[in-house]
Specification:
The protein is elongated and about 75 Å long. Strands 1, 2, 3, 4, 5 and 6 form a 6-stranded parallel beta sheet that branches. The chain is 37% helix and 14% strand. With 231 residues, the chain is an alpha/beta fold. The chain folds into 2 domains: 149 residues, P-loop containing nucleotide triphosphate hydrolases (Rossmann fold), CATH 3.40.50.300; 72 residues, no CATH class.
């Protein structure tokens, strides 16, 4: 509707800012197909597609057309996540929003509402899981970036700080837990632990002092896959 009222939309494919549509969770082929279907559905609107495979000159031409109002709807990957300022963009529709990180969703929705008109960001998801609903509810009720990142960390888990002996890669989210603390609840404790670790490593970088023998063994066990960094 905003596009027909001479505003602009994004659609990151999931994203639509009247007119911007952005797709990062969807492959390039699907972004193009999505754009074609949208053109068939909205034949009276000029709809363009923006993605990372385009030449810089092509991207600039598409964004200039969108910024000037010549293009009504922009379907895009998350290439529009940062650095895009289109004041007349009033609507963003993010398809498969459950596939995006909360911090990323927060960045994306920041592409609308940059002018004087009331703006909207619509998160679309067909994932019925309670976890997915909880994550999107955070986006509905929270607008502070730091708070969103903290809640996302609690829901997703911090991932692996070190690969285990049985694996060569590190997970970026999931089950790592400290035995005596929680990342989001014990900031003061982590600061003290960091200061203590810094004091020890500055005075004994290789942990070769007798009093640090047990600590050295614990460190080597924890970072087994990368022990080559400690001699």
């Amino acid at each position: 509707e905003p596009a027909e009222d001479e505003d602009s939309s994004y659609s990151p494919c999931s994203l639509r800012a009247d007119g911007l549509i952005s797709t990062s969770a969807i492959k390039l082929k699907n972004v193009v197909e999505y754009t074609d279907k949208l053109r068939q559905t909205l034949p009276n609107l000029k709809i363009e597609c923006l993605h990372g495979k385009l030449k810089a000159s092509e991207k600039d031409a598409i964004m200039n057309s969108f910024s000037s109002g010549e293009t009504d709807v922009l379907v895009s990957t998350t290439v529009i996540e940062v650095g895009v300022n289109v004041p007349n963009a009033t609507l963003m529709v993010i398809e498969d929003a459950d596939r995006f990180g909360l911090a990323q969703l927060h960045q994306l929705r920041g592409r609308v509402g940059r002018g004087t008109q009331k703006s909207y960001c619509v998160l679309v998801s067909d994932n019925p899981s309670e976890k997915s609903k909880a994550r999107l509810e955070i986006m509905r009720t929270t607008y502070d970036g730091f708070e969103i990142a903290e809640k996302d960390l609690i829901l997703r888990g911090p991932g692996d700080f070190f690969a285990s002996i049985s694996q060569d890669t590190m997970r970026q989210s999931g089950g790592f837990e400290f035995k005596l603390a929680k990342l989001c609840d014990d900031n003061e404790l982590f600061e003290k632990a960091f200061s203590a670790a810094k004091f020890i490593t500055e005075s004994d970088p290789q942990l070769i002092k007798k009093e640090h023998a047990s600590l050295r063994r614990a460190v080597l066990k924890t970072i087994h896959p990368i022990t080559s960094t400690i001699s």
